[in-house]
Amino acid sequence: MNIYDFKANDYKGNEVNLADYKGQVVLIVNTATKCGFTPQYDALEALYDKYKDQGFTILDFPCNQFFAQAPGSSEDIHSACVLRFAIAFPQFEKIKVNGKDAHPLYQYLTSQTPNGKVKKIKWNFTKFLIGRDGH
User: Fold this and answer.
1) pLDDT score recorded for residue 113
2) Residue 133: burial class (beta carbons within 10 Å; 0-12, 13-18, 19+)
3) Is 35 annotated in the active site?
4) Per-residue confidence (pLDDT) for residue 118, from 0 to 100
5) Is the distance from CB of 117 to CB of 15 less than 8 angstroms?
6) Which run of H or of E encompasses 16?
7) Euclidean distance between CA atoms 126 and 63, whole angstroms
8) Mean pLDDT for each 10-residue chunk of the chain (135 residues)?
9) Are 7 and 15 within 8 A, CB to CB?
10) Are the C-beta atoms of residues 119 and 12 closer than 8 Å to each other?
11) Which one is catalytic: 35, 37, 52, 96?
């Protein structure tokens, strides 16, 4: 099993097969637009812009589980990110990253960390770097 076995909805609600990113280096991040870490969007966009032509992408998963710091609909969040940070990397619909309702991708990601160090996401902008092999 690897990330290519999962699907997620983009910010418009369209299903995306993560196998579409096969062969790329992928940075998966849970985000929030009203968090002290939100300015990281600038650095994420710069990273994406610098390496996208070399097979790198960022998959952005807004999450409202941490003090409701990702308010609004997925489309509202996307519009705000495009306007404020000019993001061009793929953004998905708002999900849960912890608990029984956590998105299956995040259940998988947290189960795959070395030595089981990450059992749950502690805050916004937690990142998972995925190799070209999907692990």
Assistant:
1) 77
2) exposed
3) yes
4) 65
5) no
6) strand 15-17
7) 11
8) 97 98 98 94 98 98 96 97 97 96 95 74 96 96
9) yes
10) no
11) 35
